[in-house]
Amino acid sequence: MSNKDFYETLGVARSASDDEIKKAYRKLAMKYHPDRNPDNKEAEEKFKEVQKAYDTLSDKEKRAMYDQYGHAAFEQGMGGGAGGFGGFGGFGGQGGFGGAQGFDFSDIFSQMFGGGGSAGGHQPDYSGADLQVGIEISLEEAAKGVKKRINIPTYEECDVCHGSGAKPGTSASTCSTCHGSGTVHVRQAIFQMQQTCPTCHGTGKEIKDPCVKCRGEGRTKTSKTVEVNIPAGIDDGQRIRLSGEGEPGQHGAPAGDLYVNVRVRQHKIFERNGLDLHCELPISFAIAALGGEVEVPTLDGKVKLHIPKETQTGRRMRVKGKGIKSLRSSSTGDLYCHILVETPVNLTERQKELLEEFEKISSGLNLSQTPRKKSFWEKVGEKVGDLFSDN
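and the corresponding structure tokens:
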């Protein structure tokens, strides 16, 4: 056999991925397969070259050695027998493929023809399926943590057959189709493969007289209540994994996991941004102008907040440590109050009189007393001297 470059043999670049190498190999293996090229020595040699190249490049350690040393890395012991093709689908010869260790026709052709397990017979996985449920909580519960009980569908061991799947007084017998191996030989076109047994589904056992309650499954549908510990600081869209609380497996296989998707309801006052909370805080004109204390709601109750004099709408004030506790550390966010100076409505006659008097004595205010009005008109382009002319 020639020492042609393995990458060139498969028609791939040296940077090719494992999937690209495998895809190229399958294509060439089909093209030069002996069953498709009877009595064709050239095709036989090509098939050997392709197999040898794939045997090396599909193995990470072998590929690394080949990339560094080339064919010299395998001059000792790489080659195989010099005979023909033996042991597959009845085509003759004595001996092996020559360096075809790890060759598995079921692996090559199962995806081409929809075939099943490998020559060793892959057993089906009877582990229980993972389950997902949703749960809705309040912002207060998300901030402080809470325990919730949820009801989920599940299975339990059949109380008639006690999980065997067989009618009481009987038992499962060796599968009559695969004789206990769990796999059967299937011939598709010119190829012979092993697949999971369709009768016992890979268990090697056959229940000829199934339990009338569970119909041979060994389990019945039910529901169960699970307590979920929702940690403080969890956010909307996050999920909690409960190991082993999913659907139970069959025939003693392990259960799946339960994933609880958390949704946090929108709060009437607060909006969350990471660990911080934000809210609008309306204050009166008098408090905004003169300053004073106001009550501010938090998730832990009300607190006092000092409003400095001459506070404007839009000012943001921080209440430290009144946000959300971190899920992964000891830090806690803050509460940010966005000031909104409220214009009063439904004024009494006395209030109107006072405001009208205030407006009269406020005409011709010093520029420093109305900084926002001054800034606005300067942006418009008016002269500063004309800013406060009401006539």
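(Above: one complete record from the training split.) The CA atoms of residues 202 and 353 lie 92 Å apart.
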